[in-house]
Each structure stands twice: as structure tokens, then as C-alpha cells.
Amino acid sequence: LAEKKVLIVYAHQSAGSFSAAAKEAAVEVLKSKDCSVKVSDLYAMKFKATATAEDITGEVKNSEHFRYAEETKLAWDEGRLSADITEEQRKLQEADLVIFQFPMYWFTVPAILKGWFDRVLTLGFAFTKEKRYSNGIFKKTKALLSFTTGSQETMFSPTGINGDMNVTLWPLQNGILHYCGFQVLAPQIFWAPADAAPEGRSAMLAAWNTRLQGLLDENGTWLLIAGEEPPMLKEVQDTLRLLSPPLEGLSAVKT
Amino acid sequence: LAEKKVLIVYAHQSAGSFSAAAKEAAVEVLKSKDCSVKVSDLYAMKFKATATAEDITGEVKNSEHFRYAEETKLAWDEGRLSADITEEQRKLQEADLVIFQFPMYWFTVPAILKGWFDRVLTLGFAFTKEKRYSNGIFKKTKALLSFTTGSQETMFSPTGINGDMNVTLWPLQNGILHYCGFQVLAPQIFWAPADAAPEGRSAMLAAWNTRLQGLLDENGTWLLIAGEEPPMLKEVQDTLRLLSPPLEGLSAVKT
């Protein structure tokens, strides 16, 4: 059995955090399973979050009208992406499993991790118009969101004020991970550990430890829909139309 | 009639971009309506995207276990937030209308704009456990997402491979803007201007110009649900359960 390679992209400022403990647990258990584990500690690396022309070494094609996706695609083709991006791309390419460990900020990833997605998942390297979703470039790689929340689980229930967590995660799990082809494993959600008693936090970490034992054998849920693109059903549209600003408003102003 | 104050938070690297043109159109039309318009040009400002202890001047309370939300809440109470954050908070507090103008990156805002949300919407300043959603601190302020996409509109239709745009925008419009109380206006979506012919782009800008004429009189769709928190309906949950990794997987590992 070949050694499995795991990449943990970790985004918390403090080594004393619950996120750090969750990251450490993953490193420990997965190493004990003979995995080679690499950690990208984004804050410690002072990872650059913003997508700028500095991500390209040498000349940009059109500085008058700089277009990030096109310029970085070209730079990737020619091996002119900045070293920090290239290094992350190398780690990602080698990985069989990628774990994103972060505290949820504003219903998604912290900016430093969004910057990792914006800068590392370069057009050409991570996706093309032809290669995405079920035909995505990373379809052999498993990915998992592991994160802490500030809110209690009940607030993310279908009738909770935050709405269903599946809706909250949709742009990340479908829009980023599945788009690049990743086999998305069920998210590991640590509900409000900061508000939990020490025993509560220990129990959450124990459950994570248990899950980690079999994590490499888990299958991405996307596979269950057999290579089909997931269409949003009409119910979703109708429901969210009631809750969020209608796109009809738009066609009105566009015509 | 008192002069209206507008803040445009703008996130594009290039003055030659369609996003820049859309921002300029807003500045021009709204000034012609006797609004005072301020623009936060995030890339030009080299706006810091990452949430770190440097956002606090003076000592942090617990450097061993640095918790960003708690530390910045305290710093805000004591007027010890970094100058760049304080300046953005001042602009936001004065504004009657906030327009976020950006190119959609990975189904949400670019990291530099996510950093603006992470750093400027401080606990205490922008929300508290008591003051959020329909009781949110910014309930007198209107907010609008105005953005370009790389994908065509059909890809974001309910049956499109990206899924419904309302679902994609949910974490931004409900999770950030409505959470802070903002009256969320219908999003202004410029569909794939880069792939459009010059006439197509002109038509999009003309439509935006037309909408801008009456923008200050538009009402947030959230108001239509009469101060009620928007619960996610069961259909949404059931639908997305089919499409995204099930949370059941989780309870299984948590117990």
C-alpha cells in the first residue's frame, strides 16, 4: 500500500487555539497511519492574501488592463508564478487528501485562506473551462473542510436564524472544491468550542480523532451523484427567492 | 432633503477594468444626485486583508491564546484598533448606502474584500449577540453587492452547473449584510462582461446607470419579510442534502 500524502491548510493565528489542537490531532493520527503530512500554516507563513500583479515574476501581458485570471494563467504556463504560489501548488498536486482547518469567519473562510484559494487555484493549474466539476483536475484528490463556529448548531438548523449550514457551505464545497474536481468529504464542524466546557471541547477532539482513524477510507459525497453535475432544484430557487433579494429586480434594471 | 452619504468599497486591481467603469458610473451618477460619495479603493490602499494581532495597538489581552473577535472587541471598546480599520468604520458609520463593487472570485468576494469584512465589521461595532439581523446595528443603512462574473448567467440558473445565484450569495447577503442589519438591495450582476462584445458591455453599464438614478429610493428586500428572521425552509435543506456532503455524516462521527 503506497504511502498517502496529506496536506493540511491551516489558518489560525494562535498555537493555543482549538483549531491548532484539531490540526495537531490530524497531523498525529495521519502520521500514525503512515501518511506523509505537510502543513501550510498560513499566518505563520505570513501568506499573502491579495491577488496582485506581484504574483507574477517578469512582465505582465497587459498592465493597462490587468486581468488576474488571464495573467496568472499565462504566468503558470511559463513558470512565472511567484514562489509562494508555486510551492503551494506543488504540495496540492502531491496530496491525496487536503484538510482545510480554520475558524469560520463571516460564514466562510478567513480572508487569508480565501487568498490561498484565489492565488493557488490558478486557471490552467486547478481548472479549465473543459476540466471542472465531475471532470475536474483534482478528481483523484479528497478534500475536507474542518472548522470551528462561533454559533451554536441550532442557529444553523433549517429554521435557525443563520439558515441551513449546507446552504452556507455551498459556495465553498460546490463552488470551489467540487468545481476543481475534489471528492468533497463531509465537513468536520466543531460547534462553538469557545462556549463549550473543557469536557465538551475534549469530546469534540475525541470525535475528530475517531473520525481521523478512518478518514482516508471515506468517500466524497459528490461521487454518490454519479458524475452528474448537481442542478439546484426549483424548490431551492423558490425558497431563496423569498429570503434574498430577487434576481428579477435585476432583469428589470438590465432591460 | 439632507445630503445622502454613499460609501463604495471597491476591489479591482486595474483602472482599465469593467469594475472600475461600474464604480466610476456610481460615483458620477450619485454625485449628480447631490450625494457625498467616498470610495475605498482596497488595492490602491494596499488594504491589509489578514486578521492579525497587528490590528490592535498596544497590548493584547491574551497573546498565549489570541482570539481575534474578543481581542478586537476589546480594542474597539478602548479605541485601540489600528488606524486603517478605524477609518473604514468611520466611513461605514456615516454612510446611508454602501456599494460593494468587485469581480466575483470563487463564488464570493476577492480575499482583499473578505479581509475588509473580517477586519472592519468588528464585534461590538457591527454586531452583538443581541443586535443582529432585523435588530442589526446597520438597519438604517442600505447595502448592495455589485459584481462581475466569469460565468454566463445560464450557468447560475437553478439547473446550471454552478447552481442558483441566490444560493451562492446567501452567505454574503444573509450571513454578512443582513446579519449586521443592512437593508440588502437586489444585487447588481454584470454577467461575464469580459466575454461580451463592446456593445454588450456598454448596455450593461447603461442599465447600471439607469438603476443608479433611482438607487437611493430602492428598498431592501429583507424589509418585505417584515422584521422576521428568514428561516431556511425544509425544501432547501432536503435539496442541498442531496447535493452537498450530508451533516448526518457528522453526527455519526461526533457521537
Automatic annotation (TrEMBL), chains A, B:
Its EC number is 1.10.5.1. It is an enzyme of class 1 (oxidoreductase). One of its GO terms (cellular component) is cytosol. It is found in: Cytoplasm. It catalyses: 1-(beta-D-ribofuranosyl)-1,4-dihydronicotinamide + a quinone + H(+) = beta-nicotinamide D-riboside + a quinol. Transmembrane segments: none annotated. Its main location: cytoplasm. Its cofactor is FAD; Zn(2+). Residues 4-212 form the Flavodoxin-like fold domain. Keywords: Cytoplasm, FAD, Flavoprotein, Metal-binding, Oxidoreductase, Phosphoprotein, Zinc. GO terms for molecular function: dihydronicotinamide riboside quinone reductase activity; metal ion binding; NAD(P)H dehydrogenase (quinone) activity. The keyword Glycosyltransferase does not apply. The enzyme apparently serves as a quinone reductase in connection with conjugation reactions of hydroquinones involved in detoxification pathways as well as in biosynthetic processes such as the vitamin K-dependent gamma-carboxylation of glutamate residues in prothrombin synthesis. Belongs to the NAD(P)H dehydrogenase (quinone) family. Homodimer. This is Ribosyldihydronicotinamide dehydrogenase [quinone]. It comes from Neogobius melanostomus (round goby).
